[in-house]
Amino acid sequence: MTLVYIPAPLRDMCGGVATLQIEAPTLDALLRALDVRCPGFYARVVEGGRVRPELAVAIDGEAATYPLSEPMSHVRDVSIIPAIGGGAGIEDTEIARRYPRTGQRRDRWFAEPPMGPHVLGLVEHLSREMELKAGTRVLDLGCGRATSSMFLAEEFGVETWATDLYAPT
Amino acid sequence: MARRTYVATTINGMPTEFLCEPRQSVLEVLRDELGLTGAKEGCNNGNCGACAVLLNGQVVNSCCVLGVELEGADVTTIEGIADGENLHPLQQAFLEEAALQCGICTPGFIVSAKALLDSNPHPDEHTVRFWLAGNLCRCTGYDKIVRAVLKAADASGAPVP
Amino acid sequence: MTTSERSTNYRVIGTRPVRPDGVEKVTGKAQYGADVRLPGLLHGRILRSPHAHARIVAIDTSEAEKVPGVFAVVTHRDFPAARDVVQELGESSVNAMELSDNILASKKALYRGHAVAAVAATSPHIAEEALSKIRVEYQVLPTVLDVRDAMREDAPLLNETRFTKELGGARSEKPSNIASHIRFQGGNADDAIAGADVVIEREYRTKMVHQGYIEPHNATASWNADGTVTIWTSTQGAFSVRGQVAEILRHPISSIRVIPMEIGGGFGGKLPIYLDPVAALLSKKSGRPVKVLMSRTDVFEGSGPTSGTWIKIKLGVKDGKIAGVKAELAYEAGAYPGSPVGAGSMTMLAPYAIDNFQVDGYDVCLNKPKVAAYRAPGSPAAAFALEQALDEAARAIGADPLQFRLDNSAREGVRMVTGAPLAKVGHEECVQAILDSPHYKSPIEGPYRGRGVASGYWFNGGMQSSVTAAVNPDGTVNLIEGSTDIGGSRASLSMQLAETLGIRYEDVHATVVDTDSVGHNDVTGGSRTTFASGLAVYEAGMDIRRQMRERAAREWNVPADQVEYEDGRITWSDGAGNSRETSFAEQARTAPQKGGPIVGKASLSARGVGGAYGTHLVDVEVDPDTGKVTILRYTAAQDVGTAIHPSYVEGQIQGAVAQGVGWALNEEYYFDDNGRMLNASFLDYRMPTTLDLPMIDTILVEVPNPGHPYGVRGVGEVPIVPPLAAVANAIADATGKRFTELPISPRRLVEELHGLA
Question: Which residues on chain A are in Cβ contact (under 8 Å) with C94?
Fold first, then answer.
């Protein structure tokens, strides 16, 4: 059983309580379980498959960048806190607003598609028209650096086949 | 570009000739013309002491002296403080006393402190602090620098008056 | 002085060897960023806005380009469109769009000194001449320079599309200079304060101050025809520079090589980049390598100082305990969001066990330089406020200020305001060390003399480190690492490797290499290097030990898990009289014949970071006629975990105390009404000199961090947290007057003491 410390600004959505006891195998499951008790909580903490960049999670007192898959079975204590750096504040942009998965990508490969993040925004837009799920097979012809394929595989768990005449250097 | 002037001088015991623009400071001449980058630019207006050199035995901020003023002068820079492979007692004391962290102010401190010990081999703590007040250090809080200078004075073997 | 709770005896750790880079630094040979000399090198200079807030209508560079000797001119138009993504800088983070806009302004100049254009020429003087020929048409806008003014609804807006963000994504209805608001709440502060015996309610202010590193920012770039770029620079993190430049220039990360030169001080101010992409673009345009240097005035006006702050505290004490605290903190972010108000809010109450609290933090944009990290960012101002309020409360109830802190101290298991419980920490030990110190037991007597104490906390950081340790045939090891060495970390890392391998410190040769030559390393910041890179060094050492044990086991035909490694000796014994022995030196010498080179490696994201506390004690004397404050005696106690190289631990503490004393007594950004800094030189921005300080006594309290094999805690940041409040408390003791605003400069003291304010 993990004791979760609810940050003050989010307590209204949890009936005013400061702490909740939750049992969950992973951080993601824990946040989803919280969402059941406190509807809307998950979306306030998680965006695009990761803890929002302006937030950090402290597990048994230690704040770090934990993945959502972080195991929770032996964790006694979880707090959700502002990132220690203070955060530079992400200004809302059109892309980030309309395409939350794209807006939150910060890993290097995705930070550098030669044609910019709106490429991913387009993929994300198209993805809404399709029922993508784990096991779905995607063919990516003319994939370039295969940014879209990697995005789809990571975001939706699909199996992608990608090819191009172009070879990344 | 302004016309360059021929200057003949002595740097670290070596006869040295260079051409410089009238507006170039000694610091620029040392660093940009002669490749002696041991003297550092921290402020370029005489307030930090990182560019200190000895000019005819006197400590000067080399950013506030013009290159053309070196004609006929005798200059010692940080590069000329050690005697070959033998470190000056001040350099040795700075190492042993951990009197540097980032090290950017260190050349200026050692040059200034050398001038002090050359004229007063056994200064007390207040004298050291007074003498080095023109050199800024932002890392050490000066404690270990002052101790290093006092230690070097003790180690110099100069007779106690 | 050291007091230690550790049980292990070390051979190397705790000794005071000479640092590996020492000789180069005392002989002037060490190469700092400004010392880079390359064939065909051009000199770059930056044009800066003379206005604190202005729309940039037009920039005409044509006359500058005609100056003989000028090779290239760049403005924001030369940058690719930046993307709205956040870059982590370790102790801070930055939005790429805002970073790009800060490096060269696009539509608006948001503070005086904001860079707007750059020139590369054959000499610095020609570059400066050319800058004067660039014509910038500005439409000057009203400025806002005070953090409270900037929070008002009718304040001039720096960015009309900025709204106040709340934790977790909610935002304000109207645009605002307040970029974000955070709140921490526990128990019921209002009720607790209402029922208290003594209530202290005060407002505190601190001014914007600068880290004051002696080496100005610099960057040299060489852009090659194949698109590869090499950058020589002074930075706290070469990999962070590479990532930021890649982002700003939209250039592949693998095409950028960053060579970290020796760094002349940073203190957090050399985490963000200012010049590197400009040098790169100037080099691309000119076809020559370009070195860009900041002047001292550029550093003050155009780099990243730390926030001025406004803090309001209401604190109640009942039966000798802190019953409840309500606090509001507003921190200046400068031109773009990102003040350390979050850290200030989280650290303020950390030394104490307080059940009832409400802490609100506001990140506020105004027309000043964008702040950067400065040593325990956010915490010193918060401690300045809280520790003065505690001092007043202790006086009001007649308690000894140290005993009062001890009675209310945080300890293992106590929750911070975030809800996170503390691991094993050493605040009580620090307070006790000061109580027991000869300094505290000595009398303080005489008119206008006083004594003050204060405590402080900093988190410390973990993050990513990579090291390689290559064993040489002569029994030495090359330690290849990527953490900028600002204050002796090559020594502290070498010592940890020597300890792990059981070899001599002198046999480890540490080198900080460029971004092409080692795995990723996060910045030297957050007091993380000796801790986190130390963990990597330990793991790499254990990797070498494992390889040597396995080789010995193969040779002796015994199971590897029966082979022991201790103090550089590798042994096996079956307990029945059969034994074998070899050594690190022997394995190193015979490695070419017995399986090839032995190289230990480790890459990790460090866990187990331990926060740390300090308690400081200071005696002052105030001259009522001149307002000069003399620091008579200073003692700093700090929980340092394990002091790897005690001299450099002491040095960190002494240096931070000096900065803190400067912050308390003299340092400030002094602006006119138009936002021009009037003291942008070392003459007028008055940092402490040798004459302003006494020797600074340190007490190293060793409460080993359970999360590190050698008990290491970060030590560099904690000691700047207490001095502001300690000095203010001492001045209150000396004069009977409370100074709630920094700096407590001679002018302010004289005005207050003589009723001239």
Answer: 88
